[in-house]
Amino acid sequence: MKHFFKNPLILLLALITFWSCSDDDDNGDGDGQQPDDTTIVDLAIDTADLSSLVAALQKADENDGTDLVAALNGAGPFTVFAPTNDAFSELLASLDGFSSLDDFDTDEERDLLATILTYHVVSGAAVESSTLTDGQVITTLQGETLTVSVDGDDIDIEDATDEDADVDMPDVEASNGIVHVIDKVLLPQAVLDALNSSEPTANIVETAIATDALSSLVAALQKADENDGTDLVAALSGDGPFTVFAPTNDAFTELLASLDGFSSLDDFDTDEERDLLAAILTYHVVTGAAVESSTLTDGQVITTLQGETLTASVDGDDIDIEDATDEDADVDIPDVATTNGIVHVIDKVLLPQAVLDALNAPTANIVETAIATDALSSLVAALQKADENDGTDLVAALSGEGPFTVFAPTNDAFTALLASLDGFDSLDDFDTDEERDLLAAILTYHVVTGAAVESSTLTDGQVITTLQGETLTASVDGDDIDIEDATDEDADVDMPDVATTNGIVHVIDKVLIPQAVLDAL
């Protein structure tokens, strides 16, 4: 069977133009009356603007066992909702491969046409427009129902689509019934199902190539495949079944704009970067199933080919896909059928945690991070001051492999410390070996060796042993984290989890003091 809809991504039923009949139309004497022997078929034949309806009846009758013309010439009574020529033209324009009624050239297609036509017929009654009521349900000869919408003199007929037909000329009488001329071809659900279930002829990759809005996705697949051992194009051209969440070109543009140093997909120019791109792309693929949108449930967790999961968020017809970021993707066009699976077009490139970790990987160590942070300049100066003593090299130590955890006091914290000390107006006043040793003891009390301790792993009351040898205690209350030293005043963690290449930094608002320093002071 032909592909009925020209755009396989969207079922478009075009807006129908209104049809009006002039006083000199060939409809009898102009008052809806017809000769006693004029059947519904005769009436249609004699009405120029119903010639497509006549042609459709004749075309359907080419199938053995179908004789709609004879049936509508029968005794009746019938009620027929008769679409105009323009209505048939609009229908044909919305179908892929059907430029005229002659294109219904197989038994299957003519059966479909007969189903459409019998959906316009009510048998056993000549129903006048004056008897129609708002919300009335009418069973058709095809078996499905139509619903009447009445607002004063305006009568609409609701079919299985989202667009109603207007009754432009009601109550045209025939010898065996009554005709209401309408401006749209009515479609039953059975026909919509048949049109939408047309067998696809393209696989996922071919469908993406044929869709302009997915050209960046195709380019990304090809770019990832430049790495030896990666062949995503071939994989997604395989038997499947697959489910692919396909980001649009705009989605890729937004991703590139958010990445430093990537203005186009060509900037993925190393094996490592192309591996990252492959991880992103495989995070959009589900293997072993063609998952239709109607089967997705709110909160459903979906395991991807990349290995991490996505979560579906369903609210009526709205479907979002949650990745490892804080921004969800909207499913703009669901259920694009292909020969090896199904595609859901989305408005965002999904990112797994592994990619976020790689993109956010730090490039500076603890010392370099402190140097680059204006609010930590006093900490840097303190490290340098302590290192003036022979045998002390805290800067070199904290530039080593680690891992370390550093509680880093701000400039204001050092200002507050100096203000509390007698005879120390600045760090330059640590001007003896003994005083610089004291400063080194303070600084090493802020360092934990052998672990990069994230704030999320700290627990209330946890005791932490420092490089200086004494301990700190964590105080955790929800998102609030305090660090208790040997004094009566705790430090607040103002900025947790600053990642570096050799550990992690938690910025605090107080210089921590160990008992040994308190004793010395």
Write the layout of secondary structure elements.
Elements: H1 40-45, H2 51-60, H3 68-72, E1 78-83, H4 85-94, H5 107-118, E2 121-123, E3 137-139, E4 145-151, E5 154-158, E6 165-174, E7 177-182, H6 189-196, H7 204-209, H8 215-224, H9 232-236, E8 242-247, H10 249-258, H11 271-282, E9 285-287, E10 301-303, E11 309-315, E12 318-322, E13 329-338, E14 341-346, H12 353-359, H13 366-371, H14 377-386, H15 394-397, E15 404-409, H16 411-420, H17 433-444, E16 447-449, E17 463-465, E18 471-477, E19 480-484, E20 491-500, E21 503-508, H18 515-520
Parallel strand pairs: 1-7, 8-14, 15-21
Antiparallel strand pairs: 1-2, 3-4, 4-5, 5-6, 6-7, 8-9, 10-11, 11-12, 12-13, 13-14, 15-16, 17-18, 18-19, 19-20, 20-21
Defining key terms:
elongated; FAS1 domain; 18 helices; 521 residues; seven-stranded mixed sheet; alpha+beta; disordered N terminus
What this model shows, in words?
By secondary structure, this protein is α+β, with helices and mostly antiparallel strands. The chain has three domains: 40-196, FAS1 domain (Roll); 204-359, FAS1 domain (Roll); 366-520, FAS1 domain. Helices cover 29% and strands 23% of the residues. The protein has helices at residues 40-45, 51-60, 68-72, 85-94, 107-118, 189-196, 204-209, 215-224, 232-236, 249-258, 271-282, 353-359, 366-371, 377-386, 394-397, 411-420, 433-444, 515-520; strands at residues 78-83, 121-123, 137-139, 145-151, 154-158, 165-174, 177-182, 242-247, 285-287, 301-303, 309-315, 318-322, 329-338, 341-346, 404-409, 447-449, 463-465, 471-477, 480-484, 491-500, 503-508. It has a seven-stranded mixed beta sheet. Helix 8 (215-224) packs across helix 11. The longest helix has 12 residues, at 107-118. The model is unreliable at 1-35 (pLDDT under 50).
